Amino acid sequence: TVINYLWPWLTLAFSVPLLKNKARVPFLLVGVLLCMVGVALAAGITRSSGTGAAPPLAHYLPHLLAVGAALSWPLYSNLSRLWAGEAEGNGVPLFLFATGILLLAMRCFHPEETDWTAASAAEIGYAAVFPMLLGYVCWDVAVRKGNLPVVAALSYLTPVLSLTFSSLYLRVPLTTTHWIACLLVVVGAVACKLGIVDGSRDDGGSD
């Protein structure tokens, strides 16, 4: 979770070369350093708390996938503003629908045993409507039409909220070190925010 939520400060960092925002380098470097320390700390907890000797690929693949998500999401956010900032339509619902159809087709070729319950159906329905559809649609509009540094700033508490909810709902105990790692990522993201001077006012962007 902590690795995935590197995306708030990466969204701001990518806005420098892609959206021509100006950077305050000292703040940006401090923010990057804090975020990376937080990620390393969280990854160290996961490695040390594991039981048995897991194969290298089985251990590192989830972390690599999280890094991929952390890089692709801010890249998408900045490119959507750059290429479709003035567009009125929204392609996210169509993309999600097409992805669902593709995954359903893949599921038919790779059958697996499933155990449906009322709780699992409710969880899937909630995930499909709120975080997937409404969450992504609202984010897409916000990054294209709003003030990107402000929008990214509002997402700084997301790692804390996500980690808290995951711990409670999945009944996964968290240590003090987990919270320190999460706090480092949040503070690092705030430092990155201070290191970015929004250039959207110069290109017609709005708050």
Layout of strands and helices, then pairs:
Blueprint: H1 7-19, E1 22-23, H2 25-49, H3 56-84, H4 92-109, H5 118-145, H6 148-154, H7 158-170, H8 176-194, E2 196-197
Antiparallel strand pairs: 1-2
Helix pairs in contact: 1-3, 1-6, 1-8, 2-8, 3-5
Q: Strand order of the main beta sheet, please? A: 1-2
Task: Give the CA-CA distance, first to last residue.
Answer: 29 Å
User: What Rg is obtained from the alpha carbons, in whole angstroms?
Assistant: 19 Å
**Low-pLDDT residue intervals, each spanning 5 or more residues:** 201-207
Task: Tell me how many strands there are.
Answer: 2
Helix content: over 70%
Mass-distribution shape = globular
Helix-strand pattern, N to C?
Answer: HEHHHHHHHE
Strand % is under 5%
Number of helices: 8
Largest sheet: 2 strands, antiparallel
Give the overall average pLDDT: 82
**Structural class of the secondary elements?**
mainly alpha
Can you give a write-up of this model?
The chain is mainly alpha-helical and 207 residues long. Helices cover 73% and strands 2% of the residues. The chain has eight helices and two strands; from the N terminus they run H-E-H-H-H-H-H-H-H-E. A two-stranded antiparallel sheet has the order 1-2. The C terminus is likely disordered.
Q: Which terms summarize this structure?
A:
mainly alpha, globular, 207 residues, disordered C terminus, two-stranded antiparallel sheet, 2% strand
